[in-house]
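Sharing a chain and its predicted structure for anyone who wants a worked example. Both blocks are below, sequence first, C-alpha cells second.
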Amino acid sequence: MVTMDHMPAQHPLGSLKRLLLAYELALLLLVVVTGVLGGLWAYFWSQTTRESFRLGTLTDTSHQVRSDLFRQIREVTRARLMEDPAALELYRDYSRRIDQHFNGLRRHTASRPESLAVQDMQRAYRIIQHDMNNIFTDPYVVNRVVRLKILESGYEQRMVGDFEAAFAAFARLTAEQHAILERTMHRWTRLSPVLLPIPIVFAAGLVLLSRRALRRGFVQPMAEVIAGARRLSAGHLEHRLSAGGAHEMAELAETLNQMAADLAESRDAALRSERQAALGALVPVIAHNIRNPLASIRAAAQLLTHAESPAEVAEVQEAVIETVDRLGRWVTALVSYLHPLRPHRVATEPWAIVQAALILLAPRLQEKRIRVNERRCPEEPRVSMDVDLMEQALAGLLANAIEASPPGGRLILATARDGPACRLDIVDEGPGLPFEPEPSGLGPGPTTKRYGTGLGIPFAYKVAEAHGFGLQFSRVPEGGARVSFHMPLGEGAAVSS
C-alpha cells in the first residue's frame, strides 16, 4: 500500500477554529462599538433634554414668582386700603404661594451661581414682604395722604426695584445657560452626519475582512475539496487536491489525497487480480479451440499419405483450408472480444442497424431459405448508440439465430416502444439455447455451428454493457429462442441476464 509521509504544514491563516474565533470577536467588537456609540448618543440627548427642561422650569418658576409678587402688592395693598377683612388672608395665600415657588427654584438649581441668584431674589422678596407687613401693622396707613402715596403708579416700581434687579440677573444667568446648551446641541447636530457613519463604515470593514478571511480559509478550499472529491469519485484517482486554507481544510485535502493513493493501489491490485482470473478462464477455452483445429489439420495431413486420387487430395486440402479459416475467424473474434470498447454514439433508428446486419447475412438466409418476418414499430424512436458496434453485435446474434433455425424456417425481427425505451426482439424456431448465457462470464460459450466462434453472445453482452443496454435470452414455449435488446432513450441502464 502506498503511503504519503509528510510533516504537518504551517498555514498562515491558522486553524479554522481560530479563524471562527476571530470572526466572532470581530462581530462582538462591532456590537460593543455600536452599543457604546449608541449609548453615548442616547446619554447626550437625555442629559441635554433634561438640562433644557430644568432651565425651562427655572425660567417659568421665576416668572411665576415675579407675577405673583406684583399681584400680591397690587391686590393686597388695595384690599388693605379699602379695609377689606379678607385682605390679611389674601396676603398670606400669596406669601405661601411665592414661598413654594422659591422652594421649587432651589430644588432645580444645579450650580452655585444659580443658588446665589435665587437667594438674591428671595432676599429682595423678604424686604418687600417686610414693607408689606408694615402696611398691615401701621395704624396710619388709612390716612388719606398715605393712601395717595401708596396708590401712586411709581410706588410699586420703587418697592420691587431690588427684586427686579435680582430677577434680571437670574434671567441673564438662565439665558446664558440656554445659549450654551443650544450651542452644544448645534455642535453635536452638525457633527452627527460625520459621527453616525463611523460605526457603519467600521461594520462594513469588519464584514469585508471577515468575509475575505473566511473565503480564503474555508469557502475556496472547501469548493476545491468538493470539486476534487467529485473528480476522485469519477475515477480520476491520479488527481491531487491542493492543501490550502485553514489547517483543518489542509488536513482534509491531505487525507483525501492519501485515500486516493490507497484506492489507486487497491484498484491496480484488483485489476491485476481480475486480469489473472480472466486469463485463467480464457486459457482452457483458447487451448480447446486451438487444439481441435490442430487435431483436424494433423488428421488431414495423415490422410494425404494414403490419398490415391487427386479428388481425395483436393478434399483433404479443402478440409485443411476450412479449418485454418475457422481458426483465423476465431482468433479475430477473440481479439475483438478482448479489446476495450469505447462507443461513439449517434442518434440512430434501431431498425436501420437491423437492415444493415440482414444485408451482411443475406447469402446465408438464402442458403437456408429462411423467411424474415419484420414487425417494425410505427413510431420508432431514435436511440443513442455506436452504429458499428451494434451492427457487429446484431450480426453475431442473427448469425446464431440463422444457424439454429431449420431450413425453410422463420425468423421474427420486431421493434416496439417499452416505456422510456425501445425493445428489439430476435426470435428463431431452432431447438433453443444449448446453455444459459451469463453477462458476467469471461470466457466464450460452447458452439456447434459450422462457422461459429463461440464469442457472439459474450461480444453482444460486452457491447450492451458498454452502451448501458439490457440484453436478455429466453426460451420460446413453442420452440426456439428469443433475444431481446432493451435500449433506454437515455444512457445508463444496466445489462440484465
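Comments welcome. Confidence is low (pLDDT under 50) at residues 1-12, 140-151, 442-448, 491-497.
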